[in-house]
Amino acid sequence: MRAAAMRAAILLVWALMSPLLGMTPASAGASAGAPAISLDRAQATAGEMITVTLSGWPQGNVLIELCGNDRRAGSADCAVSTGVTTVVLTAGTATASLTLSPPPAACPCVIAATGVAAATTVTTPLTLTGAPQAAARPAAPARLDPELTIVNTSLPDGPSWWWLFGLSGTTPLEITIRNDGAAPATDPPVTLAAGPKGAPGATITPPELGTIRPGEQRTVRVEVPLEAPVFGAFEVSGTIQDAAVRTGDSVYPLGLLALLVIPLHLTTAWIVFSVRVPPP
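The structure corresponding to this sequence follows.
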C-alpha cells in the first residue's frame, strides 16, 4: 500500500514537472536503451537525400553510411565517400541527412550507423531503386595472416659523435614491432635505407627477426649509417613486411664549429693579454 502511494506521488510530480522540462517518461529514458536508427521513409531512389534519426546512442561521433549486400562484408560494402558523421550529445539522439549514392556492393541495402568510440554498428533496411540488386553474399572467411605494426622507433644513443663533425658514422635505431594478425610472421622481409631527407639513402643491414607470434611485441636494433658531409635533416624509411617505417632527426656539425671557434677565441685572448699597453 505504501509503495503504491509512493509510486503515485512520483508520477504526479513527474506530470507536473515534465511540461517545464520538455520531457516525458518515455523520452527521458530513450538514451538509456539500445542504440537504434530510423529513417524518414523505407523506400528511396539513388541520388536522393534521406533523413536518419539516432536514438539511445552513447555520447560521441557516429558515422552514417549507405551499404549494399546487407553490409555483410563490413565497410567494404558501403559508400564511404558520401558517408556523414554526426555528434550525439547527452540526450542520446541526433539527426543527419545522407545522400543516397549507390554503394559499391549491390543491394539489398541498409543504412548503417557506427559509433566511432564504441565501435557499435546498427543497421536498418532501405529499399533503394536505381541501384543494382542481387542476393546478399556471405562475408568472406577471415584470412589467417600476420599483420605487423610499427609501435615505436627511437635513437637510444642519439646522433653519432662522428656526425657532429660532419663525418660518416653510424648510430643504433631501435624499432618496436607487434604482430596484430592471427598467424605467426616468420622471417618477415625488411627493407630499410637512411640518408638526407628527400634523397636516396644508404641501405641498412636488415635484422634477423625470426618468428613473431600473434600478439607478440619485439624490439630490434639496426645500425643507421650516414655518409659525409652530414648536415641537416635525415630520415630512415622502408618496410618490415607490409608495415611502413619512417623516422628521422636533424644533425648539424656543431663539433666542427667548436673546433673552428675555440682556437679563434684562444688566439684573440692571447693577443689581448700579450700586447703590452705603453704607460701614459
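The chain has two domains: 31-129, 148-256.
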